[in-house]
Amino acid sequence: MSALEVSVDYRAITRNVEVLRSRAAGADVMAVVKADAYGHGLAAAASAARQGGAAWLGVAQPGEALALRAAGDTGRILTWLYGPAFPARELVMADVDLSASSADVLGEIVAVTRELGTPARLHLCVDTGLGREGVPAGSLEALLDLAVAAQDEGLVRIVGMWSHLAWADAPGHPTIDAQAAVFRDALALAERRGVELEVRHLANSACTLTRPDLHFDLVRPGIAIYGLPPVPDPDGERFGLTAAMTVRSEVILVKDVPAGHGVSYGHDYVTPYPTTLGLISAGYADGVFRSAGNRAEVDIRGRRYTIAGRVCMDQFVVDLGPVTEVRAGDVATLIGPTGPTATEWAHAIDTIDYEVVCRFGALRAKEPA
Fold it and tell me: Which residues are catalytically annotated?
């Protein structure tokens, strides 16, 4: 085994999309596969999501959308994160849906479609309170004027309007309803202008699972696609989702040490009694968080062990206890069906599981180009 082995169960992604479709209350599902599908592999995860019934794929970067087309995906794809200098021509020619948050981006789209003679499918993004992408609600009417004029000229088709929630992972937070109200006002404005929208979309993973009243025509789950619920399941069943990523390494050395023996740099861990240490062949150069020392756990032979002392560049240590069956060559599971979850690692190191899977996923063996 290499220092760190990251594998993905793509059947789990398919099943997760099926679960989310069942919770979508009649809305279509856009599987968000940005950032290399949260480290799970862009093309393979997208294919698995399609098999689960995802009607749409969503990506942030234009290059991701073009990569999906190059991989053979022919379904609806939306990309949304770019300024006015973006490959609009290539995206329009690839039949990718585009998003506009500003007159500058819309102007670039219109210039390209006028030259090509091919209209672009356009989604208008509204900032309803997140403060990130999206036209401010007070400026939407001006952007809508430009978009409607371009549509009347046959240069775009306004097919969607969307926004993103700031606090959906805290069900009941007042910002959710406040943003939803702003979004409904934006939809009403488009309707008064005679715009017939194909899809209205607001719900991320958390909202898909907890707010069916905000599903509209399309939901955009991201982290849930990969089996990681962003909110606790009241029934304790993880909403029926299955984590897709497994991260493993190997125990390469087992040795006995006396009580009072310092472990790793700085002796942040000192053995409290005569015990056995296990050396794991993975470190922060392999994606293991340095902050995981004395905090995160691994699974070896079905038992959990906390990392003992500091994580080093290419190795870390666990205290196996005075009596152990662990031997050199055993598998150490950092994240997996029989080991800790990405969410548990996130709680241990004060981050979110999104970062954990993206970090480990960067080390995943990539599928052939």
Answer: 34, 265
